[in-house]
Design brief:
It is elongated and about 70 Å long. The strands form 4 sheets. Strands 1-3-2 form a 3-stranded mixed beta sheet, with helices on one face. Strands 6-7-8 form a 3-stranded antiparallel beta sheet, with no helix packed on it. The protein is built from 10 helices and 10 strands. It has 298 residues and is α+β, with helices and mostly antiparallel strands. The longest helix has 17 residues, at 111-127.
Length: 298
């Protein structure tokens, strides 16, 4: 896991983040994803200056191993000078060796965040789930950490003011907020009480705004009037060319299918798997992957 003084903002990795959420549902199933509740407890992440450095890190690591339901293997935590914030060898075993940057000797409040990302690497290795390329795989790891309940630690490690510039992980603060908001909507959680960083809550709100926009895109029934009107216009264009696929530029939906039985496909707002619905007016469907009910007006 890297850290950088140049903190990127916005949603530059959104496509990979959404693909990562889909991959988690495909590998774990809808019930498997929902079983990672409640979120990792702040009490299990607590690390006071009075705690022994190694025993405290070991305690937090063991709690994260239990949260991710990894086999009860010992996690050996060490500290050394390094460019990265932390590293792990996920193929090791039966013990796992995590190395943390020496700076965490003094910044103990962020030890749990660094460990969460590295132990998520071990978790994904056990699942045999990975993306091609180092950057995409790190984004998958951050997304899995957040969506499965430990990612609030990484957002809480984000601090940016006149004296401090810190962010752990590869996602932007807003992207962490986006994934955490997706999880919160799914499980009825509120991560805000766990935040101690002044910047974490505003970043979460920006991510939550985008997450909620996913649930208000046509042809979903909750789409605002302007989007429904644009959808109707694109639908007329598709019906005027029966049998020809019609994919409006910049919009999440596309029309396809034979004349007389057109269908619209669009990403599920929960898991981002594409769903296919007949073009025939109001209808309620259930996503085949995450099993979320979706009210549509196609």
């Amino acid at each position: 896991m890297n850290r950088t003084s140049e903190i990127e903002h916005g949603f530059p990795h959104l496509e990979t983040v959404r693909a990562a959420v889909t991959a988690l549902y495909r590998r774990l199933s809808a019930d498997g994803v929902r079983s990672y509740a409640p979120a990792f407890a702040p009490a299990d992440a607590a690390f006071s200056p009075e705690d022994d450095l190694y025993l405290g890190a070991q305690r937090v690591a063991s709690a994260l191993v239990r949260h991710f339901r990894l086999p009860d293997a010992r996690v050996v935590v060490s500290f050394r000078r390094m460019e990265e914030a932390a590293s792990v060898e996920p193929a090791a075993g039966p013990e796992y060796f995590v190395e943390l940057n020496d700076r965490f000797r003094e910044h103990r409040r962020d030890v749990a965040a660094a460990l969460a990302h590295e132990i998520a690497h071990v978790f994904l290795h056990r699942l045999d789930l990975g993306f091609p390329g180092t950057r995409a795989n790190e984004i998958l790891t951050d997304t899995a950490t957040a969506y499965l309940g430990a990612g609030w630690l990484l957002l809480d490690a984000y601090r940016e003011d006149a004296l401090t510039h810190q962010k752990l992980g590869y996602l932007t603060p807003e992207e962490f907020g986006y994934v955490l908001a997706k999880r919160a909507d799914l499980l009825g959680e509120d991560p805000s009480p766990a935040f101690t960083s002044p910047q974490a809550w505003p970043a979460y709100l920006r991510g939550r705004e985008l997450a909620r926009r996913d649930a208000r895109q046509a042809p979903l029934a909750a789409a605002p009037w302007g989007e429904r009107r644009r959808y109707a216009r694109e639908r007329r264009r598709a019906l005027a060319r029966p049998g020809e696929p019609h994919a409006p530029a910049g919009l999440p939906y596309r029309f396809e299918g034979p004349a007389g039985a057109p269908r619209v496909t669009f990403p599920c707002p929960v898991c981002h798997q594409r769903v296919r619905v007949p073009v025939r007016g109001p209808v309620r469907i259930r996503c085949g992957l995450c099993r979320s009910p979706l009210d549509c007006d196609t």
